[in-house]
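User: Batch of two.

Assistant: Item 1 of 2:
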Amino acid sequence: MWIAEVRLATPNGAATFEEENCSAQKLLESGTQTLLAVYKAPKSVKSLDHLRNMHYVKSTKLNKPVQLLNIPLTSAAARQHFNRVSSSNLVST
């Protein structure tokens, strides 16, 4: 069910990763929107770093150790991931 929600939120998200001459900026924007949809971010949240901070603060309120695996990645980590995905598509085609 949630995959359909992600597709509705980012209609061109996956197609961007398959474009041959996709700009790094377009790749980053599309990937960011896809991740925000995956993490079900509110419409007011526009960056992964803001969403990560929201999840971190929410986790610390529980007075338990924060599990970093359960909060979204940083925008810098996402950028590296999207570049790897893009590069691997170029090599495999």
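Item 2 of 2:
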Amino acid sequence: MSDRPRRLRAARRLRAWRVCWVLVGAFGAMGFVTLAAGTAWQLAHRFGAGDVVLAGAGLGGTAAVTASAVVLVRRFERRIRVLVPHRGALPPLSTADLEAGPPVPRGGRRFEWALAVFGGGVLVAAVLVLSALDAVTQDLLETGTRTEGVVLDVHDPARGTSTFHVSYIAAGAEKTAEIAWHSDRTYRPGDRVTVVYDATHVRTTDEDNPDQFLVGLCVVSMIGALLLVPGAAVAATRL
């Protein structure tokens, strides 16, 4: 009895997961480019030691996701060529195909499981960094130096983070800082605000002003990890 129907079903399933990993790879590549551009901007303005470590971790993570997706897509291609050496147009994929058992005998899946563990580590690390950023801003509110500041200008775009620039006096010199605006308060140029600062960070009593680059880095890393973990786990157990 010919096993061609079974091979076609297996090839269709592999094709579907190949498409999924192509999308994951594309997301990883876009994340890498975005983080690289953000890192370049930060290097031209201000960059602390912690920023360097987190930027390196983010760039390494997105590069790893992209490279892993490329490896898996190539692996799927090889399996498809084995199952259907002379590929023509495969029949449409059905739900039953996805719910069917493994298309090929299960072998070692160390690479896929390592990807899943890596993604889980990235997710945990991103959550911890976000928690640490929140703790830093709260500690600053309690221990930082307070002074009066004046709002210079306000940027409230339809999309993206609203910000305003504030001028204040620190150590006898006038300084300017950009504050991310997340509260319900309305700001206008000339408004008086209470600025809280230390050697590395500035906020107001109403705006915690976390580092937007690090927040964006964590969000991108979390999204990538949420795609990577289930995708790698499925690849390890079903493909």
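Residues 76 and 153 are 54 Å apart (CA to CA).
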